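Support request, please re-run this one:
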Amino acid sequence: MISYEVGKRYDAAIRGEGTQFDLADDGAFLAVYFSRPDEKEVAQFGAENPFEFRFVTLQGIMMCVFRIGSLNWMDAPYTPHLSQNLTKFTLPNEGEGLSLTLSLFDCSNGELMKLRYMSMSTTFTKKFFAEAMDLKMKPFSKAEYFSSLNDIYAKYSTKDLLKLSSPGFKIH
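Re-run finished. Output below.
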């Protein structure tokens, strides 16, 4: 498990703008990479702002679609086959859910600008895990995954993915 601290710089976060979603035994991690985010963008990641997370599975890839505060909807692909720190799925007890760490990095220098911790609902966690477990049981090819991902992005915008996704988890 990696320990993150706001204000510190992480070499792995120096990259192009984008998003990354991953599952591990200790929870979910959603990273957003903006180049030189302004104060308004950083503020949207605060706990006082709404957050919504949905998903749709296309061509064997879970496409996570999410909105942070008043920012535009974003998406991040996911397959459990690429989760290096996921060895098991632990279904939650009633009243418990998947913990999600949301982070904002300035990808121009790797600085962690904001961290936010949330717990998803039991119902959504069970639905998400069921889909991820189903995918994990299917054969996987990294080459086919990236080919399918390119095909999905050629066919669908983030708005299209949002329309295809089912209602998910929301914090107001």
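Residues 11-164 form one domain. The chain has one domain: 11-164.
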